[in-house]
Amino acid sequence: MRNKDDREFLKQLGKRITTIRKQKGLTQIELGYRCDIEKPNINRLEKGGTNPTILTLRKICKELEIDLDELLEGLK
């Protein structure tokens, strides 16, 4: 079981991915296709319901055309 801080971090991360994805004009399906991640898993990630691996975050950043630093900027 994750502690409260961990859950909050994952929710913030998910919201950040959602915001950037929408700014890029992508749907969850499109991002999932580009990253080879099924749409339900993208949805769960964006809701903060899963702890993505660093490799998953790397794929997402590549397809969103951002650096990992930019994705994590401001998250606590």
Written description of the protein model:
This protein has a single domain (4-68), classed as Orthogonal Bundle (434 Repressor (Amino-terminal Domain)). The chain has five helices and no strands. It is 68% helix and 0% strand.
In the CATH hierarchy, the architecture is Orthogonal Bundle
The number of distinct structural domains comes to 1
As residue ranges, the low-confidence spans are none
Computed CA radius of gyration, to the nearest angstrom: 12 Å
Query: Structural class of the helix and strand makeup?
Result: mainly alpha
Question: Got a strand count?
Answer: 0
Element-by-element helix/strand order: HHHHH
Q: CATH H-level name... which superfamily?
A: lambda repressor-like DNA-binding domains
The 3D shape can be described as globular
Strand content: under 5%
Distance between the termini: 19 Å
Helix share bin: 55-70%
**Largest beta-sheet details:** none
| CATH third-level topology | 434 Repressor (Amino-terminal Domain)
Number of helices in the DSSP assignment? 5
What is the CATH C-level name?
A: Mainly Alpha
Mean pLDDT: 95
